[in-house]
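Re: the pair you flagged

First of the two:
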Amino acid sequence: LTKDMSGGDYSVIVAQPIYMNNPLASFKGNTTVHFVPMDSGTSGRQAKSIELDHFYFGHFANTFSPSAGKVVFDLEREATIYATRYNMAVELNKAKRDNWPKEHGYSTFQR
């Protein structure tokens, strides 16, 4: 959520490239960021979306507007989906647990 932005407040929603095809998920396509006005449509402003390269994320750390029409957000960018970190082969092997972030580009915050 941007706060006190000169053009109004926006919610920032990041859609990861995960598609549920029961019972399996597929991982394809790019990551899309949606900027949704928080005024319930009273200003006439429309939601906007931008497509980024293919990546996953775990957490937002910060979202703000440094000037009119600009939104900056920090998020934890991951090369692979974080859930693969929690399989038994990794959990039962200390060396794999310790090296997993470095080997998979995990937990890298980017602006």
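Second of the two:
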Amino acid sequence: HRTPHPSCCQTESGAPHGMIDLAHCMTVKSAELKAQKRNALEVSTPDTTFLMYADSEKEKDDWIGAIGRAIVRCSSTYTNEDGMDDEERDSDED
């Protein structure tokens, strides 16, 4: 079972043709109006905005959710410099 990739990330043969470093991503959102195409999503970095197309609305929503969670994980890693999450910090104060 192969993991699906949004259309921008596949060649016609189905092979991925690039990667976006999610550590540099700022936002992910639906982009159907901007792209004027159904099931479009947009991933923004400080330098570039990537438009991608999923095969269905559910797949688009799944991608937006997964990429959004990855952006949050990456940003919390950078803002939490001591490497401890909030639960560890709370338990140390007891």
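The two ends are 47 Å apart (CA to CA).

-B.
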